[in-house]
Every structure is written in structure tokens, then in C-alpha cells.
Design a protein that fits this description.
This protein is an alpha/beta fold and 304 residues long. The chain has a single domain, classed as TIM Barrel (Alpha-Beta Barrel), CATH 3.20.20.70. The strands form three sheets. Strands 3-4-7-8-9-10-13-14 form an eight-stranded parallel beta barrel, surrounded by seven helices. The structure holds flavin mononucleotide (FMN). Flavin mononucleotide binds next to strand 6 and helix 7.
């Protein structure tokens, strides 16, 4: 029997719940030769800044047990080049296009969102893990005030569905989630990478030129599931879960914790077909368990 894998997130219908995560899928161009991009529920594009950025100097990516540590530093062509050179291709090939945006000041976020508001991007995802240079450089998303400020700033200039992407590098993830919800976010996505560091014992130098970086991949799954569960129980808006999903079972776990949809990032770096395998696996699970649609899974973790 054909199962219904569609889900609605922030008012936008996705044909299935699997989205390529920002920063691990570029603008889809490298993958379009492998399979039709519209097989994915959606694509979250590489984080966009006001101007082109070359990112951090290398080494900026390192393998680590069960994961990846990266300090790519938001390398991207800038929002104008995205709109002109990448968005038309994406809109033609993909079903749902999510523009992930980043900035150091409220003006950065406002300007980028205003530009995207005039395009046919389906959802704007706010990456609030960027340093707040208005306040000493800690990430916007480490405080409820910072999360609220960015959400409010962007909400004021666009009616597009807003997905606020939380950083896990906080004491209580529900505080930033609730702050974003109160300022008009339509959806919360989480988690971004977990701050980490490795040192090469031969050279005695940090492995990354930037000293620290963000940890992602299978190793972070339990942290992500815990945070998705906490946030899903704290807000009324939709939740999109990510962090360490490499198999269909991981995606289902994330949905049971409360996510309506999931994003897959690091897994794509070793297997570009990972999202498709996850979609197939979800359908198999639905068949095996006689599940008609995914509302029977989302948030349905059973209490002890
Ligand atoms: C190389 C790399 C680049 C990333 N770039 C971005 C980015 O530009 N914007 C963003 O919001 N998240 C970015 N992320 C974070 C991912 O979107 C995702 O939140 C995180 O990696 C956890 O999911 P995963 O374990 O499936 O990779 C990046 C992750 C990696 C590994």
C-alpha cells in the first residue's frame, strides 16, 4: 500500500519529511546530476550572508569518531549572487527551497531577509549561531534576548514562513525556542553544530586553524533527540529536527521526539544518496507498522 509521507511545516507542504541540511548540500547543483532534487522534501541552502565570504583558512574540517568537526566559516557567494545565479536553478529543480541566512548585526539579517522577501524562496531559516558583533561576539542564539532580537527584526520585514534554527550551545534550549516563538517564528529547527575542539598530539596544535569548530554527524544524535524532545514539549509551533541522522531509524526517532520533519547534513558528505535511503526506510517502517501518515509518529514517544 502507498503510504502518505507528506508533512506540513510552517504552513508549507513537503512531499516527504526529509530536507537536506544547510551547508552540506550547497545549492543542490552538485547533486542534480545524481537524482532529481525534487525527490527530497526540501533543500536548505548554504548559509547566506550580505556579502560574499571566503570562510575560514584551512584546515577547517576534520573527521572525529562518529562525526565531523568543521569551521568552514560561512563560505558563500552572498545573497545577491544567490538570488541571481542559484535560486532560478533551485526553483526549477527542487520542491521546497529554504534560504538559510546569517549575519553579525540585526541590519545584516534585516537586509538579507528584505531581499529574499521579494523572491520565490519558500521558507527563510535564521541561523542564529553567528557572532553578535553588537554585543561582544557571543552567538546571537546563546541568549533568549538575542534569539528574540533576530526573530523580531526579520519578522518585521517578511511574511515568508520563518524557521529559526537554534544552537545547542546553551544551558536551556527551551528558552531560546520560546523566545523565537514569542516573536513570530513559524517553526523551530535544531540542532546546529556543538562547539568542539581537537588537538594533534604530534604537532601539539589544534587540528583546526580556527582552534574550535562545530561537531556534527552520528555522534551528536542523542544530544539532538534530547533537545528536539525538550523543545517540542515547550512550544506550539512546528519543530524540524536534525543532528546525527544517518538512517531512517534515526529520522523516525527524531520524529517520535516531536519533529514534524528532519534535516540530514553530515551523512550526505559520505553518501549523497543518504536522504533518499532515509525516505525509503521511512516508507518501509510505515508499511511494517501499518502507519498511514506521519502524524501517527510525530511526538508520539510513549511515556514510561
Ligand atoms: C560543513 C558544514 C557546514 C555547515 N554550514 C551551515 C550553514 O551554513 N548554516 C547552518 O545553519 N548550518 C550549517 N551547518 C550545520 C548543519 O546544517 C546541521 O545543523 C548540523 O551539521 C547537524 O546535522 P548533521 O549531524 O546531520 O550534520 C553546517 C554543517 C557542516 C558539517
Amino acid at each position: 500500500m502507498k503510504r502518505d509521507l507528506s508533512v506540513t511545516v510552517a504552513g508549507v507542504k513537503l512531499s516527504n519529511p526529509v530536507i537536506a541540511a544547510s551547508g552540506t548540500y550547497g545549492f543542490g547543483e552538485d547533486y542534480a546530476g545524481l537524482y532529481p532534487l525534487n525527490l527530497l522534501g526540501g533543500i536548505s541552502c548554504k548559509g547566506l550572508t550580505a556579502e560574499k565570504r571566503n570562510g575560514n583558512p584551512p584546515p577547517r574540517i576534520a573527521e572525529t569518531p562518529g562525526g565531523v568537526l568543521n569551521s568552514v566559516g560561512l563560505q558563500n557567494p552572498g545573497v545577491d549572487a544567490f538570488i541571481k545565479e542559484h535560486l532560478p536553478f533551485l526553483k526549477e529543480k527542487a520542491d521546497v527551497v529554504i534560504a538559510n541566512i546569517a549575519g553579525e548585526t540585526r541590519d545584516d539579517y534585516r537586509n538579507i531577509a528584505e531581499k529574499l522577501d521579494g523572491t520565490d524562496v519558500d521558507i527563510i531559516e535564521l541561523n542564529i549561531s553567528c557572532p553578535n558583533i553588537e554585543k561582544g561576539g557571543a552567538a546571537w542564539g546563546v541568549s533568549a534576548d538575542g534569539a528574540a532580537a533576530i526573530t523580531k527584526t526579520v519578522r518585521a520585514v517578511t511574511k515568508k514562513p520563518l524557521m529559526v534554527k537554534l544552537t545547542p550551545n546553551v544551558t536551556d534550549i527551551t528558552e531560546t525556542a520560546k523566545a523565537a516563538e514569542a516573536q513570530g517564528a513559524d517553526c523551530i529547527s535544531l540542532i546546529n553544530t556543538i562547539l568542539g575542539m581537537r588537538i594533534d598530539v604530534k604537532t601539539r596544535r589544534p587540528v583546526l586553524r580556527n582552534n574550535t569548530g562545530g561537531l556534527s554527524g552520528a555522534a551528536v544524535l542523542p544530544v539532538a533527540v534530547r533537545m528536539v524532545w525538550q523543545v517540542a514539549n515547550a512550544v506550539k509551533i512546528d519543530v524540524v529536527g536534525m543532528g546525527g541522522i544517518t538512517r531512517a531509524e534515526d529520522a523516525i526517532e527524531m520524529m517520535l521526539a516531536g519533529a514534524k520533519a528532519v534535516q540530514v547534513g553530515t551523512a550526505i558528505m559520505t553518501d549523497p544518496y543518504a536522504p533518499l535511503k532515509i525516505i525509503d526506510g521511512i516508507e518501509l517502517y510505515m508499511n511494517d507498522n501499518n502507519i498511514t501518515d506521519l502524524s501517527e509518529i510525530a511526538g508520539k514517544v510513549l511515556p514510561w
